[in-house]
Specification:
2 copies of one chain form a homodimer. Chain A is α+β, with helices and mostly antiparallel strands. Chain A contains 8 helices and 4 strands. The model of chain A has no long low-confidence stretch (mean pLDDT about 100). Chains A and B meet through α3 and α6 of A and α3 and α6 of B.
């Protein structure tokens, strides 16, 4: 059976930067499920119109199409109960929902504030007008205005990350001895920052980079 | 067997405001364990000197003395395995450690910034000099200077709480269908704010207050 993940790409089609798609690539690896990716750009709405909506991740698993990272994760957990659990026994999924909310409400904006112009610079030309219009509307400022005060925003990001650092000072993964979907969620955000930032967000010896490498190593990525 | 919790009190000995002691009161209720509290003030170091340190919570459980909220919670979980688990199966305890780090690094400071002078006003006279000196040193500003910009700090607290609100919009408790120690930790912080703030921090119909009442109702408190 073929399993296909539509995965957001930059102008360089090997540069896959969506934090939500990274969650699912790690979740598929966690479940030991093979898959192929299709590079997808923001404006290729027609390519995923069959999914009934216009965003990735979209997973086609044989006859089944699922979109939305949480929906895909819940589908994988339900559909492949004999593989390692993505969440663990209750109440782990519920607690993971807090970590998801924190990641999307606090961590994503802190990273976006820094890397938005860096993303813009690396997009496929056909995506640039869409990205500029949607992000400038959401943030109420021009892409070019994001450059000002970068240093301060990198500092603000470190403050937001304090609870992650403190957690990982006491245990190997956010989920303890091995990564779970909570790790996938936070990893996705930091991978997005790491891949797209024009200047490094973290020192080479940062605990967070060691944790990211450890997550990838667990899955042989 | 007698079980005694040393519990931080204000001038009014019925006003028990420590977020860390609240965690343990809920944890004891969760474990269905009866206990008595001893009201304790910051400067009564001699009263808990037997615990080998100078802070509450201190729990005396028969012959055993434990101090530090996490140490007490872990002790209760270990000592009373036949009662309802405080954390749930792995990886729930590890995920709870993230929620703890977030609460202490982000939520506590946001609440303290608002209520510090309100706490000071309600302390037992013998605690005031200690509290002033320690808090003014930690924050680098005078207690009286905390009053300025209160409205802005209440707004900042609402921003910090966004992930809690979003989580509780999708499920009854942070741990899902029933509260666990993750709920106790966040409850402790908000109870501290609710009890000590001179002006309400939340609207009467706030989702967070409904959740706090639901936590108390589960334990019949």
């Amino acid at each position: 059976m073929k399993r296909i993940l539509y995965d957001l790409a930059a102008a360089d089609e090997a540069l896959r930067f969506s934090p939500y798609c990274w969650r699912i690539k790690l979740a598929l690896a966690h479940k030991n499920l093979s898959y192929e990716t299709v590079p997808w750009r923001f404006t290729e709405k027609d390519v995923i119109a069959f999914s009934g909506q216009g965003k990735v991740p979209v997973l086609v698993d044989g006859e089944t199409t699922i979109s939305g990272s949480q929906e895909v994760a819940d589908y994988l957990e339900r559909q492949y109960p004999n593989e390692a659990s993505l969440f663990g026994e209750p109440p782990a999924r519920a607690l993971t929902m807090f970590i998801r909310a924190w990641t999307e409400d606090m961590l994503h904006p802190a990273i976006a504030r820094i890397i938005l112009p860096d993303i813009y610079a690396q997009l496929h030309p056909k995506d640039k007008a869409y990205f500029r219009a949607s992000r400038e509307k959401a943030w109420g400022m021009a892409i070019e205005d994001f450059h000002a005060g970068r240093e301060g925003h990198v500092k603000a990001l470190q403050a937001v990350l304090a609870p992650v650092r403190r957690t990982l000072a006491g245990q190997s993964f956010i989920a303890g001895d091995a990564p779970s979907y909570a790790d996938h969620i936070v990893f996705g955000a930091l991978q997005w920052g790491r891949l797209m930032s024009a200047a490094p967000l973290f020192a080479a010896d940062d605990l967070l980079l060691a944790w990211m490498d450890a997550v990838l190593a667990v899955y042989g990525i």
